[in-house]
Amino acid sequence: MAHQRNVKVRRAYEEPAASDGRRVLVQKEISASDVQCYELDVTTGGLKDLTIRPEGGTAACEIAGYMPGERAVLLLSDFKDGMQRLYVKELKSGAVREPIPALGRFELDGAGPNDTREYLLAVTNQDGYGVLSVYTLPDFQPVPLPTMDQGVVSPASFRGSTLVWSLSNARTAGVAFATTFARAGKGGVTQTTRQLTWTNEQGIDQESFPLPELVRGRPVVAHNNLHGDVVNMGAIYTDRDVVIDGDLITARTGGHCHMFARAIIDRLAAQDETADAASPRQEAATVA
After folding, report:
1. Could you say which architecture CATH assigns to the domain 215-287?
2. d(Cα 276, Cα 243) in Å, to the nearest integer?
């Protein structure tokens, strides 16, 4: 099976394997713009191509998971306008449809069902914020979520009816929550959310911190994976290890922390020198 050497299993929010254990969803990553998806028959080694791509072209296609009943799969693909969208592909007919057109207005950061395939989770990039959405399966009806501040939402697990997720922004440093969903009458869904972790604010008023407004129109650098987020926030991405713009200092990665720390120290030292230089003049002016 040498032809399958570069095929690897994609682990989504659920195990991408059929309930009979004979079929598994796998990906073959050739390049950033050419990621292919297959259904692997583990008994025969056969591969069924599921990739959603333009005719004669390539696309970055990602596995989200099986639909309930395992007669269709959920896939992400950027074949249309180069922007990741969510699709359902029927395994027998190969028919493809976009189940939630409203999600197509934004770049999709990730999506996948929970382990029971009762709910679908999706995170979209909206003006630099990660926005969380949950839908019922297989009918794709939206599920109410708790009110949350804008920021980077990171799902951690979705087991049974409980979704564990975290929220990070300039005001909230990675606080974790657990939201549990329950089916109600007439197809409705209710939710209860509890906070799992708290942040030591050390006396800082984090509510006063701006979010994208902090960097909008200013030169910054970030990890290469966050280039799109930087642009969506309206900042000016600058390809340098450390970028200093007045009181805003940014660094590319944790590997540049020593340069980042030096830039901050130099900035604080310069402020102290300015303050010290101003003090004698202020005293002289007072004496005069």
Report:
1. 3-Layer(aba) Sandwich (3.40)
2. 26
